[in-house]
Amino acid sequence: MRHTPLFAALLGLSMMTGAPDAIAADAPASVTIYTTAQDSTQRLARSGTATLKTGHKLTEVENSVFVDPSKKHQALLGIGGAITDSTAEVYATLSPEKRAEFMRAYYDKRDGIGYSLARTTIHSSDFSSASYTYIEEGDKDLATFSIEHDRQARIPMIKQAIAAAGGNLLTYASPWSAPAFMKTNKHMLRGGVLLPEYRDAWANYFVKFIQAYEKEGIPIWGITVQNEPMATQTWESMLYTAEEERDFLKLHLGPTMHAAGYADKKIIVWDHNRDMMLYRAQVILGDPEAAKYAWGLGFHWYETWAGFDPMFRNVAAVTEAFPDKPVLLTEAAVEKFDPARYQHWPNAERYGTSMINDFNNGAVGWTDWNMLLDQTGGPNHVGNFCFAPLHADTRTGELIYTPSYYYIGHFSKFIRPEARRVSTATSRSTLLATAFVNPDGRLATVVMNPTDKEIAYNFYVGQASAVVTIPARAIQTLVQ
Q1: What is the mean pLDDT of the chain?
Q2: Partners of 331 in the beta sheet?
Q3: pLDDT of 4 over the 90 cut
Q4: Of 25, 51, 337, 377, which has fewest CB within 10 angstroms of its CB?
Q5: Per CATH, domain 77-414 is 3.60.15.10
Q6: pTM for this entry
Q7: Is the peptide bond before 379 cis (omega within 30 degrees of 0)?
Q8: Looking at the domain 5-19+28-74+427-479, which fold is it?
Q9: Which H, E and C letters describe the chain, residue by residue?
């Protein structure tokens, strides 16, 4: 199924409509339901309404979702995706009409899914057509620093994304590797460690990046210290032990950022998987001198690569140990691209499961990886091809919408920045759920059914309830 959501009405779909206005205090407790379901045409479709009433018997159906809006938790920073070199390069191949469609699909709050958060890279990553840096090799003084490479595709796309998002898009940046001469292995790829004599130069590199991007009119909200600091990859990568990252932050990067006038920029540590995040937090955030420079901790979802279950509980362990330090999912992608699996529903369910559990365990935001890739799952200069929520067939100019796009949209479209997560529970493991109260007072509850059977459930908001039905293999957002 390769349809364009902006023209879904032509296919008989009722989808992507704006959320209803906030309900007046004296209005009936009406709930609008939006659904995406496998083996159907429903894609963020307005699928029905329900009226919350008091007094219905809890025993009417077996499954229940309980929401208590009076019990509030973390505020939402935002939901979005990464504008990598690959995303920007593929985007640049699209026709003007398709580029406009892409921007509406991702950033428009009414006709799209309303992304509010963006990640980008500091020079190259694996999702670039080639390795590169912003300086000439060996330039320890950074005299040759230039972002000219990024002006070709990435910077123009980020500027258009900011405009499409209404002029405000929270943007942060991550490095995959320092320049080769600054590392023990003298190579951008395959790990290696930052040499002690280049720690200050590398810290200044971050400052130069922020200065250059902001001169282009792209505000940088924050940076991460290092993408995946415990992984020796075949692509751009660099290693830090927990102690090395702590010391680089407190003795070099933090002081350098402050001296440059960037004390307001957020510095995110770890930026790797959930499995080791508590130990990294204990070492860095447990050190007062390092912690004063750290905004919070970023994490990825790839601890599942060897078949292990996601370590959602570790997200909560960090938030419980360091309640003043937010945690943010900074990267997630479905690996091992196969064009025959564009519509593979479990890919979308992986997003839904992770987003619900990460939020319920305290995450303040969620950033998908590449927003757009081509029909090969790239470009990628080391063959690490992956899925994206949207793909473009560069041979035809067609945009391909995967189920993951819609599943993410059930969160990003209806749960807006500064929304507060509220207490949510389910009575059976057959359903997953999370809920947020938006700044305008609207309650948005996301319910996911990963089973092969339609499920009727009691939807409780406080003492009032309604019986709602969710199709098999589906996700719903209930807006009150």
Answers
A1: 94
A2: 300
A3: no
A4: 25
A5: no
A6: 0.94
A7: yes
A8: Immunoglobulin-like (2.60.40)
A9: CCCCHHHHHHHCCCECCCCCCCCCCCCCCEEEEEEEECCCCCCCEEEEEEECEECCCHHHCCEEEEEEEEEEEEECCEEEEECCHHHHHHHHHCCHHHHHHHHHHHHCCCCCCCCCEEEEEECCCCCCCCCCCCCCCCCCCCCCCCCHHHHCCHHHHHHHHHHHCCCCCEEEEEECCCCHHHECCCCCECCCEECHHHHHHHHHHHHHHHHHHHHCCCCCCEEECCCCCCCCCCCECCECCHHHHHHHHHHHHHHHHHHCCCCCCEEEEEEEEHHHHHHHHHHHCCCHHHHCCCCEEEEECHHHHHCCCCCHHHHHHHHHHCCCCCEEEEECCCECCCHHHCCCHHHHHHHHHHHHHHHHCCCCEEEEEECEEECCCCCCCCCCCECCCEEEECCCCEEEECHHHHHHHHHHCCCCCCCEEEEEEECCCCCEEEEEECCCCCEEEEEEECCCCCEEEEEEECCEEEEEEECCCEEEEEEC
Q: Which of 358, 319, 330, 318 is nearest to 172 (CA)?
A: 330
Where residue 23 falls among pLDDT bands split at 50, 70, 90?
very low
Condensed to tens digits (0 to 9), the pLDDT of residues 85-101 reads 999 999 999 999 999 99
Task: Convert the pLDDT of each residue in 296-306 to its tens digit.
Answer: 999 999 999 87
Distances (CA, A) of 294 to 117, 174, 282, 291, 302: 19, 14, 13, 5, 23
pLDDT at 55: 83
pLDDT(294) > 50:
yes
Annotated catalytic residues are 228, 331
Q: What is the pLDDT of residues 447-480, one digit of tens each?
A: 999 999 999 999 999 999 999 999 999 999 999 9
Residue 238 to residue 227: CA distance in whole angstroms: 8
